[in-house]
Amino acid sequence: MSSKIGDWVNERSGWRNHYAAIFLRKIPKINWLYTLGSATLFTMTLQFATGILLTLYYVPEPTQAHASVDYITNELTFGWLIRGLHHWGSSAMVLLVILHMVRVIAYGAYKYPREATWFSGVALLLLTFSFGFTGYLLPWDQRAYWATVVGTRIGEVTPFVGGSLKSVMLGGEEISGLTLTRFYGAHVWILPAVLLVLVGIHMYLVIRNGITAVPKRNE
Amino acid sequence: MNDDADLPKADHADSSLTDPAAQGESVSRLDADTQPDEDPQLDAKGISRRQMLTRSVAVMGGAIAAGVGIPAIFYVAGPAAEDSGTAEWIRLGAASSVEPGTPTLMKANVERRSGYLTSTEELSVFVTTENGTSFEALSNVCSHLGCRVRWVDEQDGFFCPCHNAVFNADGTVASGPPPRPLDQFEVKVEESQIFIKGIA
After folding, report:
1. How far out from the chain centre does Cα B186 lie?
2. Could you report the predicted ipTM of this complex, rounded to two decimals?
3. Where are the domains of chain B?
4. A56 domain residue, yes or no
5. What are B152-157's contacts with CB under 8 Å, separation 24+?
6. pLDDT band at residue B96, thresholds of 50, 70 and 90?
7. How many other CB atoms are there within 10 angstroms of residue A55's CB atom?
């Protein structure tokens, strides 16, 4: 955008400096494995877009949840596409964050001065799992129900706090409408809010510290 | 080659974010910064490697955005195109219950489908007759902004409480803001029962 509009905006915002710092920064000679982080970011954007669209029709209420999902999938124009992208996108995102993490481990990219980037990345990994866990209940079918039974019982074996952890997750002793609404609230409000903050920190650190080169044998 | 990635370089990129001196002369400075990176070997049309890649990313990004964005428009607009099911005759009640000369409020329950939900709504209609044989059915929805009108005997008109609209007994506007008369339903009488069909 080197047009006059771009100049006008740049004179008042200095955006070209930021654009250069983000997109035109110097990087070492790298390979395709270094695109896994960007691929995760892209999938996240897709999840945000399709997730927001799904909230236009989805109803987090026990008698309507499955009916609304069924309506989205089978009756609504392109509902199958929006829900399909969100469904498969979630699996893709889990896969991509893990591959991204393996690349960072394999190349030793978590070392000084990038420890903070690593820790924020670990938090983002757990956050991605939390998205998957809370989103899994929302279709409110047999698979969703029993996966949540199993998932919360796994949480129950946490030492000392397990019992209360399970009750707080479920909003009671059993899965109920309260479980559905709190999983929904977590999935669409709490987790995205935390995710955006952490992604901001993570990306700031990546740009601030630069990325690592592929390690060499004699180094 | 790898030295390029070391911290001093990254700090340099970072300083351009905060250095106020860099802001004013940013354009020329950036040009100076980026030009040496570009492949000096331009093709026949004078497109550099960097420009080619930038354009490819823009085209692919645009294609992906359109691939989600265009279906999203249909997805959002979808239910607006659905038929909510008002194209059938609705039975209001006995024709004998309509008092000649006075609009009579008659009610019927109608099923409305919206998405996966079917709900029962009460439809209220003013039925008028002069002679007991030919009938007219007026919607009770004000043609101004959709509030419900009521018949006021003493003033011989329909009155809307929202913006003081007044309609005559035949539905035409007597005073106030409405742009058009009250909507009319199609009416038929079968076995001395009144049926209506149409809008609202």
Report:
1. 27
2. 0.89
3. 47-82, 87-199
4. yes
5. B153/B102
6. confident
7. 12
Quote the pTM value.
Answer: 0.81
CATH superfamily of the domain spanning B87-199: Rieske [2Fe-2S] iron-sulphur domain (2.102.10.10)
User: Does A217 touch chain B if contact means CB atoms closer than 8 Å?
Assistant: no
Q: What span, in angstroms and rounded, lies between the C-alpha atoms of B128 and B105?
A: 9
Nearest-CA distance from A173 to chain B in Å?
Answer: 31
Chain B residues with CB under 8 Å of A28 CB are 1-2, 4-5
What's the CA gap between B188 and B200, in Å, rounded?
Answer: 17
Q: Which of B137, B142, B177 is nearest to B159 (CA)?
A: B142
How many Å lie between the alpha carbon of A17 and the closest alpha carbon of chain B? 6
CB contact under 8 A, A17 and B17: yes
Cα A115 from chain centre: 21
Structure-block tokens of residue A53? 């669209």
Q: Which residue has the tokens 């710092």?
A: A21
**CB A22: neighbour CB atoms within 10 A?**
14
Q: Which domain holds residue A113?
A: 29-209
Low-confidence ranges of chain A (pLDDT < 70): 1-2, 219
